[in-house]
Write a structure and sequence with these properties.
The protein has 122 residues and is mostly helical. It has a domain at 8-87: MazG-like (Helix Hairpins). It has six helices and no strands. It has helices at 8-21, 30-46, 53-58, 63-87, 91-105, 108-111. The longest helix has 25 residues, at 63-87. It starts with 7 loop residues before the first helix and ends in an 11-residue tail after the last helix. The model has no long low-confidence stretch (mean pLDDT 95).
Length: 122
Amino acid sequence: MSDRITTVGQLRAMVRRFVDDRDWQQFHAPKNLSMALSIEAAELMEHFQWLTVESSRALRHNSDRLQAVAEELADVVCYALALANELDIDLTEAMKTKMRKNQEKYPAETYRGRHSLEDDVS
């Protein structure tokens, strides 16, 4: 499996099988999954705490640290997929809708190279 050939549906099915095999659905209330997602995101952030921007980008060249980050990122994705499964959210449709909103809110011609308009003096 790789990102180039694996579908979101296949990933969701993988998570669903894992949960079903352990009878964990009883614990996967949206409230619990959203909290677990946040906790895993915080664990991911720990790997970058106190690093400079350059150091955080250089992390890709440290295989041990990169593996630890990959595992935390996988935990985040697993909980996100479990939440999508629990609430029957079509992630592809949700992403398309959200990206359309983002494109309207942040037009490329206005925001290229900047994250806000605070530095706009006009």
